[in-house]
Structure formats: C-alpha cells, structure tokens
Amino acid sequence: MVLPFPQPELIAHYGYPVEIHEVVTEDGYYLTMHRIPHGINQEPTTGKPVAFLQHGLFCSSSDWVIMGPSKGLAYILADAGYDVWMGNARGNTYSKKNVGKTEEDYWNFSWHEMGVYDLPAEIDYVIAHTGQPNMYYIGHSMGTTMFYVMGSMRPEYNTKIRAQFSLAPVAFMDGVRSPMALLAPFVDSIDIITGLLGVNELFPSTALFDFLGAALCKDEAITQSLCTNILFLICGYNSKQLNETTIPVIVGHTPAGASTKTVIHYGQEYNSEKFCQYDYGWITNILKYHQVSPPDYKLSLITAPVYLHYSRNDWLSGHNTELVSYYGYPIEEHQVKTEDGYLLTMHRIPHGKGDESRVGRPAVFLQHGLITSSSDWVIMGPQKGLAYILADAGFDVWMGNARGNQYSRSHVTLTPDDAGFWKFSWHEMGLYDLPAEIDYILLETGEQSIFYIGHSMGSTTFYVMTSQRPEYNEKIRAQFSLAPIAYLTHLRSPLRIFAPFANQLEWISTFFGIDEFLPDASFLDFMGGFMCDNEAVTQSLCGNVLFQILGHDSKQLNKVTMRDSESLR
C-alpha cells in the first residue's frame, strides 16, 4: 500500500536516501529539487550518470515515486546506478516560496518561463553539485514542453543534455482528444474572467482534495469507479495501466497547482495549431515581440538527441496517425545530422506485417524524387507500395527524405525562414545527405552494405555521391535507378521550356526572396482534395496535368489515389 506522505518522507519510508535542494532562478523564483543519490542498500559513490526528471502539468516530483519501488521510475533509475534528480516547476506544491513579489506578479508566468529560467537554473545547479558535465533528461507532458522551450530559446543548454526522453510529448496540440480541448476556444474569455476575479492559480493542492481522494476513491468506496472514469475521460482509457488502490495517494499528491497563465498558454497552442510564445494580443505583442503574432519556437535549434514516447490512447498528447501504421506495419522515425548541419528524417519499416523477426534482414534504402518525400513509397498501400512489398519480402526498409522537404526542414543553426537554409541543390544531397543516412543505417543495423533504390532525383543524388565520394560504392550491394536522371538531353516534358531561362528565374526568385519551390501547403492540400477527389468533375483535369508533365499512361494511374498523392507530396 502506497502511503500518503509528502514526497521526501515517502522516499525515506522505502529506505532510499533523499536530499532536498533549493535553487533560485534568474528572475527570482525559488524551486525545490528532490534527489535520490543512489539506490537502496548501495554505497554513495561519485561519478554516477545523472538523470533529471521533470513532471507534467498540475503535477510535482511526487509523480516519479508514489508508485513505490520497482514501479516508480525514480527508484528504478536509482537502483540501476543513476544519480536521480527531480525538478519542481515554479508554483507547484514544492516550489511556492515567494520572496519580494506581489501575488499577481508571482503568478505571471507560463511554461515559457519554466523553460527559459527554471530548467537552466536546475541543470546548472545539478552540474555544479555533481561535477558531471551533462545529464539525461526525462520529461513528462509539460516537462517535455519546457525542454523544447529551453532547447530552442537557450540552445547552449543542448550540450548539457546527453539524451532527452519525451514521455507523452506536448508541443503542437492539434492532436489532443481530451474533453479539456473543448475549453480552448474560450481561453480569451477565461483569461479575462480569472483576471477580474483575481484567480491566478488553478487546482492547488488542498486538504479538500486529500479528503475527497481518501473518501471517494478508496477500494471500499462505491464511488471509486467514478474516480477512475474521471481520469479516463480526461486522460484516455486504459484500465490495465491503472492500479485503482493507488488513486487516493495519487489524488493526495495531484493536482499540485499551476498558474492560470500556464493553462491559457496551452489553450492558445491548441487554437493556433502552432508551438509559439504567449499571445498577449496584437498591441502588447508588438511592444514585446515587435510583431503582431507571437514568434514560433525554433525547434531546429534543439540539437540534443530527443526520443519521443507516446501511446495511442493518450488523449492529452496528440500523435499523427502514420499511414504505415494505419495498415498494421511497424514504423520508426530516425533523425540524422549531416556534416553541414541539416537534420534529416528517415522512416523505417523494420519488418513485414505480422513478422516481428529483425535479425539478418538485408537493409534496403529508398530515396524519393524531386518535390516528393518518403510518402511516395507507401501511399499506394500494401501489395502496391514498394516499401510494403519489400518489408513483406524480408527486407529492413529505410526511406530517406532530402533536405528541405516536409520531413527534413531542420538545421542546427538555420530555419526555413533563413535564406541560407535553402542554399543547396541535389549536389549537396548527394555529397552530404546520402552518406550521412547510409552511415546511420549501417551503424543501426550492423550490416556492411545496403541495397539502394532511387527514383528520379533519388538516382541523381546517388550518382553524385558515388562519383564525388567513391568510397561509398563499397557500401552499396546493388543500386536500382527508377526513371534515372543524369543527362537531360532527351527530356520531353513541357517543363523543358523553362530551361533556357534558368539564370533569369534564379535572379527573379532571389530578388523576391523566393527560396523554396512548391512547398507542402494547406492550400495545395485543399485544392488536391477539392479538385482531384473521386467525385469531383475536375478529376480528369488533375490526371491530365500529371500526364502532360510526366507522360501519359492511364493504366498506371489509380485516380482514386490522386488526392492522397497531392496531400502527401
């Protein structure tokens, strides 16, 4: 039975060492951290790797220990040899010390300030106290949001993170399914009302919550099912992952309080479908940000290794329904950094449907063509999409994404808004992208060589790589060029009429600041869905446009898939 002690006493109750540390942020907030320096019955030693755990919204460091040894992550890590530190965000149960601030000023923060001030202060303190130059960071829910803010707003801290593990990651909110999302359209009204009423804190830890948790949620209470269903309704249903006996102690520690502004900031994210700073309204935005809308966080500045962990029935953390997993195939996402700083996304189908064996599978790498992506290999579905066919045939399938397409739009120092980001052609893709991806695959799989299949520009980039960096020829078992492109003398597409004006087009695009050609855009998605839908009278026009540019072959075009082809370009 888990006991309803305060967090440090709970740790000590199970025989683990516990320490309490206080940190002061740059903007004057006092934060409490809890530490388990070593496992039970272990001798204290120096040099242990540091694991820093950061809780989610309305929570506290108690989250990591209330399940007890062998289940609480803090205990598991301590017993595994880690020096475990647990942070507490400003304003929660353990970090409410207020020195020299008015009540209104104290609560004037959101998770933005937690990422800009709280995490850096805690990380610097841990490094100074332990002597370790870096640490592992594990964040849950808002704990991931805070990290993304820090990594983008204060990128110098990326070097202090050995790896970051995001549990139920939250940045973009468009996939949230919890009924809490129904409140998002009213965040402006909620902001005004709470401001008028002086409500600066939401759901603080109180004796009332402790009493209700003990009285209504205990095993003997007929209302226990009500407690569980409230949790399921808000967070998502999974009865196997909930020990109902522990609900009273969970309620005794959670909620632990949060500022009203923190919750409103999440509501703004849901409404805008962006990951951006707090929206104060256009007048204050201009004064504070020098622009009408709040600036986006530059996630491309996050260079620490990030691992995302999510579950499909988590209603508070959205995830994109992958086309591959929709068909029942396993799917992995991998990020690779090139020599010149581009961050590329590769998609992997490690094995076929219903076949979980991984050992000994030959690796095959698929590289898409111009203005396309890894989606090309899967949008036709099983039995027709080459990626599925190869996975079912026993291959370990990897699909690349060239720099600048919809899946590879990050750089260690640049963003797609910077002209310097777009200073590349297929030459750099062959010189830097393919070698980085191939080396990553060989390292990840243990294979000595791979099969390479390139379509159109995917063949061009291969020819560049093997001629400019010939040492990579020995890493290719065989290369298959689909619609190969090297010399363009015999090109028959009407697009060739633009070739004589290439220099002029480059000058014009530079003059007008046009660095990207045909980006993935909601307008094109809409037009593809509207005009190319199976019931649309204009569907034949879509088909004829494709035929005019690429060549006519009606037998090889399934018109029903044109809409998906356009939206997944």
Give an overview of the whole structure.
GO terms for molecular function: hydrolase activity. It comes from Ladona fulva. Belongs to the AB hydrolase superfamily. Lipase family. It is built from 19 helices and 16 strands. It has 2 domains: 7-205 and 254-300, Alpha/Beta hydrolase fold, catalytic domain (Rossmann fold, 3-Layer(aba) Sandwich), CATH 3.40.50.1820; 323-492, Rossmann fold. Strand 5, helix 5 and strand 6 form a beta-alpha-beta unit. With 569 residues, the chain is of the alpha/beta class. Helix 6 runs antiparallel to helix 10 (260-272) and helix 14 (426-445) packs across helix 15. It has a 7-stranded mixed β-sheet with strand order 1-2-4-3-5-6-9, sandwiched between helices.
List keywords for this structure.
569 residues; alpha/beta; Rossmann fold; 2 domains; seven-stranded mixed β-sheet; 19 helices; 14% strand; disordered C terminus; signal; glycoprotein; AB_hydrolase_lipase; hydrolase; hydrolase activity
- What is the CATH topology assignment of the largest domain? Rossmann fold
Give the structural class.
alpha/beta
Number of helices: 19
Shape: globular
- Poorly predicted spans: 520-524, 562-569
